[in-house]
Amino acid sequence: MATVSRVINGSSRVSEKTREKVLSAMRTLNYRPNSIAQSLASNRSNSVGILVPQVHGPVFASMLSEAEEELRNAGKFTIFATGLSDEIKEQEAIRFLISRNCDALIMHVDALTDEFIKEQMDDALPFLIMNRVVPGLEDKCISLDNERGGFEATRTLLEMGHRRIAYISGPLAWVDASARLEGHRRALAAYGQDFDDRLLVESNFKEFGGSEAMSKLLRRGRSFSAVVCANDEMAAGAMDAIRARGLSIPEDVSIVGFDNAPLSRYLYPKLTTVNYPIAEMGRMAARWVLRNVYKDSEAEIRHVFRPTLVPRGSAITAEGSRDDAPGK
């Protein structure tokens, strides 16, 4: 039994001749290792639970894909669950993943409070939080500096001479959405501009939400020459609403998104946006688990990622805008 176990687990303490005998017997008997029995014997399931708000859209798909590939290459498996950005559903998803004997959890949660995470998560099960920083658990967080990203998006337009800048936000109860808006506010203040809440619309991070939000802004009759959208999907919807009103991009309205999702390169004009390196962050989360749970990696772990602006054609200087643009 010990020899067979060493062959199945890839131990180097087996001669090649013996290894081939065992593998030949396994093929003859059509033997497959029992993962449940292995888990009981080793106290490891070799599976990692990953909780995301949804599988829709490029951001979470990239995170899941990259984390799964990194773990699979190390011989680990993944179990996915969604929390739908709802507190009860996120708690249910966590309980489900724990019940599947996962060795660790990677969690991108929007609705769970910091207090719940600190008080209710069992220290016996290692866990990592994505895209937010929970005070006191910084070593268990991998995050994007969302406030910096919001600042860079608005600063870019301010540097182009825009002063009346509208903002389409994601749900402000979510940590990343509120941080991006705070960056927008900080940029305005840094350039001596007052924040006008009539140029703010809260939406839902989806295309139709961006379209509805832009239509609402245009109906308000407040002048603006540029708009920042808190993600690229809403920017795509906003662009459609702008054109539906007979306006042009960027001649009438400049627009900046957030994420650098694949669609941003195929919109017309191509979308100026803030890069969210979610694929790299997904790989980093997997490496954190491999290093801290399985002791399989010596890779350095980066906990905070800094967003960068990706300039394209959807934003131009205020001087380049048409005289009859909404912000003139």
Short description:
The protein is 42% helix and 14% strand. The chain has 328 residues and is α/β, with parallel strands linked by helices. It has 3 domains: 33 residues, lambda repressor-like DNA-binding domains (434 Repressor (Amino-terminal Domain), Orthogonal Bundle), CATH 1.10.260.40; 128 residues, Rossmann fold; 142 residues, Response regulator (Rossmann fold), CATH 3.40.50.2300.
Features:
Rossmann fold; elongated; 434 Repressor (Amino-terminal Domain); 328 residues; alpha/beta; 14% strand; 4-stranded parallel sheet
What does this structure look like?
The chain is an alpha/beta fold and 328 residues long. The chain has three domains: 1-33, 434 Repressor (Amino-terminal Domain), CATH 1.10.260.40; 46-144 and 278-306, Rossmann fold; 146-276 and 310-320, Rossmann fold (3-Layer(aba) Sandwich), CATH 3.40.50. The chain has eleven helices and twelve strands. Helix 6 (114-120) links the parallel strand 3 and strand 4. Helix 9 crosses helix 10 (232-244). The radius of gyration is 24 Å and the shape is elongated. The model has no long low-confidence stretch (mean pLDDT 92).
Write the layout of secondary structure elements.
Blueprint: H1 2-8, H2 16-29, H3 35-42, E1 47-52, H4 58-73, E2 77-82, H5 87-99, E3 104-107, H6 114-120, E4 127-130, E5 141-144, H7 146-159, E6 165-169, H8 175-190, E7 200-202, H9 207-220, E8 226-229, H10 232-244, E9 254-256, E10 273-275, H11 278-292, E11 304-305, E12 308-310
Helix pairs in contact: 4-11, 7-8, 9-10
State the low-pLDDT regions, or none. none
Distance between the termini: 81 Å
State the oligomer. Answer: single chain
Q: In this structure, how is the largest beta sheet organized?
A: 6 strands, parallel
What's the architecture of the largest domain in CATH terms? 3-Layer(aba) Sandwich
Tell me the CATH superfamily of the largest domain.
Response regulator
Along the chain, the helix and strand elements come as HHHEHEHEHEEHEHEHEHEEHEE
CATH overall fold name of the largest domain: Rossmann fold
Shape: elongated
User: How many independent structural domains?
Assistant: 3
CATH class assignment of the largest domain: Alpha Beta
